[in-house]
Amino acid sequence: MNIHEGSLYWPVTMPIPLERKIVEIASHYEVIIVGGGMSGALSALALADKGLSVAVLDKRQMTTGSTMANTGLLQYSNDIMLHELIEQIGEKDAVRFYQLCLEAMGKLKKTAERLPLDPDFISRPSIYYASDDNDLKRIKKEYHILTHYGFPCDYWDEEDICNHLPFSKPGAIVTHGDAEVNPYKFVNGILQLVESMDVHLFEFTAVNDVTEENGLLRISTSSGEFQADKVLFTTGYETLPVGKRIGADINRSYVIVTEPLDVSPIWHENALIWETKRPYLYMRTTVDNRIIVGGLDEDKPQPPHSNESIMKRGANIKKQLETLFPELPIEIDYAYCATFGESLDNLPFIGEHPTKRNHYYLLGYGGNGTVYSMLGSKILAEIMTGKDHSDAHIVQLKRAATALNGGKSGIS
Ligand SMILES: Cc1cc2nc3c(=O)[nH]c(=O)nc-3n(C[C@H](O)[C@H](O)[C@H](O)COP(=O)(O)OP(=O)(O)OC[C@H]3O[C@@H](n4cnc5c(N)ncnc54)[C@H](O)[C@@H]3O)c2cc1C
Asked: What is the best residue among 4, 66, 128, 300 to mutate for testing ligand 1's pocket, by most ligand atoms within 8 Å of CB?
């Protein structure tokens, strides 16, 4: 399955791929991670920081899965508003989940500072506007809940929005503590860092099956057999070799990247911008003065092969951008479509398989995938080293998604 089609922008920012060290398969690893994207790389770092022996296996060149299509908006707010999450899972867990996301933002920044290459991580505010008058009540309610629990944010009314941006909307929450990143450089930097910590990386190594014998896992792959105590699946939106994912919706989403242009006089602090409508339009700027805009999600998992249909959706996104920023001379330079997964209850799947011992998952489904990858890597590093994590139940595989999914658990 191709999980993206069209012309992607991030590879152009790092045209010479980093060379991986050539390593022999060790006789045994404490943890094998399947998938070398954002979730796999952050997990490898969290586990290597704990001193575990780790290998990462990927059937592709690492970082070229959905990580390469990720638009790099990093936000502590989620697709589900805090007040809605409170209704869904209760106040204590919902507020804690939002706190975990805010903490993950700080950890992403610290990780960026550790890397051997600059991943263009820049702190930015986010502007979350009400798409129409009907959503203004939700925005105001959310602002009150966020401030009540101490989350850093401001409220802008229509006049404030007009004073900071060239368009008018009924109201917006401005969150602080968010950031933009180049996810491709970020993950390549993490992989380079973990290699220096003796994590073994095996590209073009497809995992076909995992069996257990006397408490040891045998992982059969296209490059031979590996043995490990534990396996962690960070396989993103693709069908897993073992186990079927349920409790998630797999769609596709479109992105355009403009030619460089000067937005600074009219784009408040190069903020990340998104909205309450679903599917939502979201946008950011880049270090080389481009605008990245995504949206137009469709209820199909596979991106279209035809460049023509990608360009058609791209033109639609461009029109929406021009409505917001009519003064800008916008030209599309890159346009693509990618598979995108969301869980039914808007929370990621993180934890040990409910019935298969030593099989772990980190599936950061949702618009906030990178934040989920970070918070998941930290939770897993604790529970995989035998410690309890007091927040693990919020995102565990067997959870409320069960109820949303006709009684079936999130992963089988
Ligand atoms: C258009 C788009 C925009 C996005 N924008 C944002 C954003 O602005 N902010 C944000 O936080 N998130 C965003 N996301 C989400 C983000 O991309 C994902 O959450 C994140 O990249 C997932 O990383 P991952 O490591 O889980 O998956 P991937 O990067 O897909 O990595 C999974 C890896 O597993 C490998 N694999 C799969 N099966 C096997 C197997 N059997 N054997 C070996 N290897 C295997 C694949 O080859 C792949 O490299 C966006 C996603 C899309 C599609």
From this structure: 66
